[in-house]
């Protein structure tokens, strides 16, 4: 019973099954100490479970009178889908400011029947991912939900925003869409303060206030396409222009949308990109199976020659 979440769930089971237990009794049953029991009970309170503590010689812990966890009816497939979704969200950095994923998992596992709870717990504790974990920038839950609601209802909102320079501004925006990308949440829309289309990181928005005004998003506007195009035009040292002589659809699947823009040309696909280091760009181009022509910068040619020399030396060892 070494896993902390398992102990928390067991603590809840003990409190459900007993009218009152002292800290020492709980510590003995959980194979831990009284201080850790206090930490676990505090965690249950954060999850909304009313654990009451009574001080004194005959004190102890108990659940509030009349409180019972509600039943949850899920099929095996539904329960697995929920658990895998929560685990994947945590892995991708999609969590919000509160420890919501862990809390949801704890509640779900607590109310599932034992025959289903144990296999799902085994899945949670043994599942591995080939992709690296993403450390996300968590937005506030209320801010994220308010922006999503405003985007669906096509309602203007006022936001309190802090820039990367720590500058605070109040502005009205028309949120065209909410996008999650590599550990960060963004809102894309019309900024009334600047009078232009803007992208804001949601973790930098402190508050959202609905306005009475409504808006109409541009026909065919794609928030994902706009975001990836904006990120690809970030402030980097090198501007790269290369024609890749291959099919557009296949090239697009091989290259990161946030790093490049692709345009079909009679002779191939024109790639515009920006890079801080050209050795990384050389590796990316060398990984493609199609020939390519470098337009600029000329320094990229030397980066490719350096990479070729490294590969030749490695092959001769």
Automatic annotation (TrEMBL):
Q: Which residues form the Helix-turn-helix type domain?
A: 7-62
Could you tell me which InterPro entries the record lists for this protein?
CBASS_pafABC_assoc_protein, HTH_11, PafC-like, WCX_dom, WH-like_DNA-bd_sf, WH_DNA-bd_sf, WYL_dom
Pfam families for this protein:
HTH_11, WCX, WYL
- Origin superkingdom: Bacteria
Question: Which residues does the UniProt record annotate as the domain WCX?
Answer: 238-311
Q: Spell out the Gene3D superfamilies in the cross-references.
A: Winged helix-like DNA-binding domain superfamily/Winged helix DNA-binding domain
Q: Where is the WYL domain?
A: 143-209
Task: Name the PANTHER family for this protein.
Answer: PROTEIN PAFB, PTHR34580
The name on file for this protein is: Transcriptional regulator
Name the species this protein comes from: Streptomyces katrae
């Amino acid at each position: 019973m070494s896993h902390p979440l398992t102990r928390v769930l067991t603590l809840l089971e003990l409190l459900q099954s007993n009218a009152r237990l002292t800290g020492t009794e709980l510590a003995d049953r959980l194979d831990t100490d009284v201080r850790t029991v206090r930490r676990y009970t505090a965690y249950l309170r954060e999850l909304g479970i009313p654990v009451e503590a009574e001080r004194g010689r005959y004190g102890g812990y108990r659940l509030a009178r009349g409180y019972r966890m509600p039943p949850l009816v899920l099929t095996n497939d539904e329960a697995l889908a929920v658990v895998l979704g929560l685990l994947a969200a945590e892995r991708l950095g999609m969590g919000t400011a509160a420890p919501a994923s862990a809390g949801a998992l704890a509640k779900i596992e607590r109310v599932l029947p034992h025959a289903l709870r144990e296999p799902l717990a085994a899945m949670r504790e043994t599942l591995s991912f080939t992709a690296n974990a993403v450390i996300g920038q968590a937005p506030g839950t209320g801010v994220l939900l308010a922006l999503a609601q405003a985007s669906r209802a096509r309602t203007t909102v006022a936001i309190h925003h802090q820039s990367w320079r720590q500058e605070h501004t109040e502005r009205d925006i028309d949120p065209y869409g909410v996008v999650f990308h590599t550990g960060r949440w963004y809102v894309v829309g019309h900024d009334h303060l600047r009078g232009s289309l803007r992208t804001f990181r949601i973790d930098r928005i402190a508050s959202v206030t609905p306005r009475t005004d409504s808006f109409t998003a541009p026909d065919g506007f794609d928030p994902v396409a706009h975001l990836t195009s904006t990120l690809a035009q970030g402030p980097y040292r090198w501007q790269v222009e290369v024609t890749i002589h291959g099919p557009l659809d296949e090239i697009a699947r091989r290259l990161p949308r946030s790093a490049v823009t692709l345009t079909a040309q009679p002779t191939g696909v024109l790639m515009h990109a920006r890079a801080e280091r050209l050795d990384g760009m050389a590796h990316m181009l060398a990984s493609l199976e199609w020939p390519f022509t470098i337009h600029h910068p000329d320094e990229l040619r030397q980066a490719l020659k350096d990479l070729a020399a490294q590969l030749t030396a490695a092959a001769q060892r």
